[in-house]
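Notes continue from the previous slide.

Worked example: a multi-chain complex. Inputs as given:
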Amino acid sequence: MRYIAIRFVRSLVTLWLVVTLVFFGMRLAGDPIRIMLGDTASPADIARVREAYGLDQPFVVQYVKYSANVAQGDFGNSLSERRPVTDVLRERLPATLQLTVLSMLIALLIGIPAGLIAAVRRNSAIDRLIIAVTFVGQAVPGFFIAILFITLFAVTWGLLPSSGRGDWRYLVMPVAALVWGDLASIARITRVSVLEVLNADYVRTARAKGLRRNQVLIWHVIRNALVPVLTMLGFMLAGTVAGAIVVENVFAWPGMGRVLQNAVLKRDFPLIQAVVMLIGIAVVIVNLLVDMVYGIVDPRIGKP
Amino acid sequence: MKSSRTSSLLTNDVTRRDLMRLLGVGVAAGALGVSGARVLAQEASPVVGDRPEITIGVQALPATFDPAVDYSNVSLRTFYSIYDYLVEYDYLGGDTPGMGSELIPSLVTAWTEIDELTTEFTLRDDVTFHDGSKLTANDVKYTVDRVIGPDADATLTSFTTSLFPGFASVEVIDDVTFRIITTAPKQGLVNTFAYGQFWVLPQAYLEEVGNEEFGRNPIGTGPYRFVEFVADDRLILDAYDGYWGSPAAFSKVTFRVIPEDATRIAALQSKELNIITNVPPDQMLQLANDSSLVTSSLPLANAHIYMFNTNHPNVANKLVRQGLNRGFDRKAIISTLWQGMADYMGSFQIPSWGDFYNPDRDAYAFDVDAAKALLEEGGYNGEEIVYSTLNGYYVLGVEVAQVIVASWQALGVNARVEVVDQWAPDETTMMITWSNDLLPNEPSHTFWRIWGADGIAQLYGFWTPQDARYNGEFGETLLTSSDQAARVAAYQSILDIWDDEAPAGILYNQHATYVEQAGTGWQPYTIYGMDLR
């Protein structure tokens, strides 16, 4: 428990450092008022609006104000949407959660057994097939796969809607495109990990003491082989957010990926900061969960 | 210099514009599964129940529907259906449908110049907002005052003062009469109210709900009323049957946001959409071969240009700038990169400006020898020329910059492209891509507000005309004289100086591109706004 608490505090510090970095980095990288007013605004207009938003004040003053507001749960108003950023996030988060959670679950449900089978049947035809498929999955960009899916399933065969958010039919292609990359990573790392565990002394011992093949696989191999897969899950979440930006764009899915993309393009500071914080919190939570599961999978982890 | 001018009064007779609209509806309805006979029957009835629906795929939608906040190509496209201007251009008039430039009444029926600073307008008395409340002159005054009046809200950002130079106040005479007062005589004033942000907004509703809520749930006087907006997903509008003009052509309009070009095209091909916008020129050629689709492109009221910072020592000599202007082949760029979907411009002028357009003017004739001679005469000696262009903002902006720089390198110019991610020129900038509006009718409200004495280029100090007559007698004549011939002559003198001092180079007048299902028959205009009336 103390281990988890320490990790939690560390994560909060990391999170705040990231938000601070974004706060100053974005302000050095561009001016939202210029973008807001476009290329027909006079210097006087720009100065007037910059003052109205308090962006004429020194960065440090802005930072102190921002920190004080966040501490009170006020994340500010989106500069481009003119409403609280929390409203924007509340509206858009479900769409992204729907895509990412579903795709990660499917990727895990297919990827882990696929990796396991490939490892257990090493050098067999099925192993080669799984390797080949996952190789393609990792090599071909999600963007290309997405366009290919649309061309085949929407334009050529007319089976699925090309884009947008609606009933389950709208979910199929974007989820498949996200699963595509994640699945390959999970299957390949599971395969490597299982192969390593299969050669471990304790597996040989387990077999030697007369356990059945399936018992060895479930209680000794899978359990130990899952540690690196779990580690990767934490990273994958951040990767899935990046993947969601691409997939949400291609499939016109109104989620957080597009919020972040538009916010960056418009230098919508409060919105960018809130999205980064939200992603950070999600990564922290997933990593904490992974840490807790570590303890279950491998009791040695977390003990002094 | 006092003069008086009154526009033609709007009548309730069916105009040619109305007929064309109805014909447009007929074709569109046919494509959407509604019989032509039924649509023709609509002509007799102002309120129609069985109109077709239409779905349009766009690359983006505005983040808010307050015209005082969002002024962009994507907002202009949709606001055109929700709100009305005081006057508008007769886009369907003239030789080329969609390119008409004559001013016609819209919310006002007439305007009269009271004196050189005051113009009086008369509103229609049958206009209602979508909540049923009546439009009055107070709404017009409120629309202006909330953004550029003495107590204006500085966060209402789209009404930049540069777009309304010399605007003083609105004076309400009675419910249907108001006067617009300027600080100096201003020819072309009425044009200001036919484009841009000047949509008339409801005072009572805005005061009741506030700016933020208005941006999320707007009402206007336009042919369609706002129903639903899901950010980055869709905007739904319904026909407003209390509309004062011709009935809306469609019962429901859905704008679907599909940012990726390939997906937008696929959605059209799979018949999920009726029309798509912003189609890349290379895709237009490919789609033109599909018999189930119709492609259309029309010159947009906008030109891509680049602006020089004439203070920068590397481009301070006008002969160097002239040499650079003539040192690449615009026509080749138009025929290759743009696939012909852009028009060559010899200077800051377009044919629809009538007498103001001089077809013989050509400041950009491609001539390698002339360009080299100008550079040499201007003392160019290998200084670096950095061409700044925006990343992903202007269609083909980076590709065109690369071609231009390669052409200059072939002349021996030490040039390179710099890709920047926002339009923020400063003293270190040598030149940067830009776009300038080419609004119909005449140049005083479009050229002058960018390049005039109070225009952006001079305000930023990137260029100060060396010939004092530019801001002086020529500028004054263009803005204030009631003698049209004198104004035309003044504009030609202005362009002589502008071409000679070369504070900028025009690239081309790019086209807006659309693809629709065959039989839709929708007519694009030269503006970003989509007319679905």
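Summary box: Chain A touches chain B through 48 residues (CB under 8 Å). Chain A has twelve helices and no strands.
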